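Propose amino acids for all 217 sites.
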């Protein structure tokens, strides 16, 4: 079934637990859980990839991404039939009522969402709590619009000069050297050089977007 949304979750388990151990615990928990009721118990079936994990993807504290269900494969994760059947469930390890996602998780989530949108179109972002108001998932510390904001932040970078060397500071506070002695540099978008530019006349603190200087003050 064609997906129509991306749904973000958190595990409420240790964020930085080793991936093998974390996925085993989640897999066993989802296998044992009664997803129905006492009168009508329902237990998860294995996915086509061989897992009981109900999310399509898990993102671990290290930034590693693993897939457990194919896109379009039903997973019981959002208390809503449409979301379960047409949503792509992306779950980050951690308890974001009490802590923030790691920098590596943020970067991996941004990359995964961008990849999914390239494949399936401009899928909107939903949170588990949108379908179950009794839950905070993906956590009280995750504000509305956060996922789209980290993608937008990656489009905009601040140019900083330090002793003749040019750096960019991206929206997630990553510092990358882009300058050379002659002040010519590659402006980077993501990890790929997209435009060579002469930075000699650009002032510290300028904002660049995909290599275009939009604020030279």
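Proposal:
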């Amino acid at each position: 079934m064609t997906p129509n949304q991306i749904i973000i979750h958190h595990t409420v388990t240790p964020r930085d637990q080793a991936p093998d151990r974390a996925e085993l615990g989640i897999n066993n928990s989802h296998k044992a859980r009664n997803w129905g009721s006492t009168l009508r118990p329902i237990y998860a079936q294995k996915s086509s990839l061989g897992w009981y994990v109900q999310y399509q993807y898990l993102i671990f504290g290290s930034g590693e991404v693993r897939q457990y269900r194919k896109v379009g494969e039903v997973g019981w994760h959002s208390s809503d039939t449409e979301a379960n059947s047409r949503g792509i469930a992306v779950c980050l390890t951690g308890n974001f009522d009490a802590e923030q996602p790691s920098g590596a998780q943020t970067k991996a989530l941004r990359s995964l969402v961008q990849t999914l949108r390239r494949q399936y179109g401009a899928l909107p972002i939903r949170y588990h709590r949108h379908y179950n108001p009794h839950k905070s998932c993906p956590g009280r510390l995750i504000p509305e619009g956060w996922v789209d904001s980290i993608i937008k932040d990656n489009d905009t970078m601040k140019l900083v000069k330090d002793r003749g060397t040019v750096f960019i500071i991206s929206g997630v506070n990553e510092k990358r050297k882009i300058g050379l002695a002659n002040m010519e540099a590659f402006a980077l978008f993501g990890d790929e050089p997209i435009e060579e530019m002469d930075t000699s006349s650009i002032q510290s603190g300028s904002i660049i977007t995909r290599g275009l200087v939009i604020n030279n003050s």
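The domain at 5-144 is CATH 3.40.80.10 (Lysozyme-like). The helical segments are 19-32, 81-86, 103-120, 146-155.
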